[in-house]
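>> received
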Amino acid sequence: AAGGEADVDLDVDSGELKVETDEGSFSSGGSLPDDFPVDQVPLIDGDVIQAVSSQQAGASGFVVLVMVDAGVEDALAEAEQRLLDAGYEGDPEMADIPGMSVVQVVRAPYTVVLSSYEADGGSAINYVISVE
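>> returned
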């Protein structure tokens, strides 16, 4: 749209989208991106519904949405505990968002904001991961 060159790959069967430019890359779909740091950011067990990767000079990160059968508070506590067990530290300064349970944990170079809400008879756990 800005007149630059981009390689765009859209798989209409799976809904996977990948865009690569000289400035960075973006991918979105229902499975973890190839560059997701699975050994550094342990996710709760569940179904990955959506995963996004954005890599640019100076700013990179991921957004992952996982559906689980547990209740909202239990699912959030389990997702947070997995990260704490991996060496992350909690951030008590996280803002309270009405209607949504939210926590933030940090372990350089990663900052992870977890949110949980009721969805489709279970809970959705949303991971927003920024990389320094």
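>> Helices lie at 72-85.
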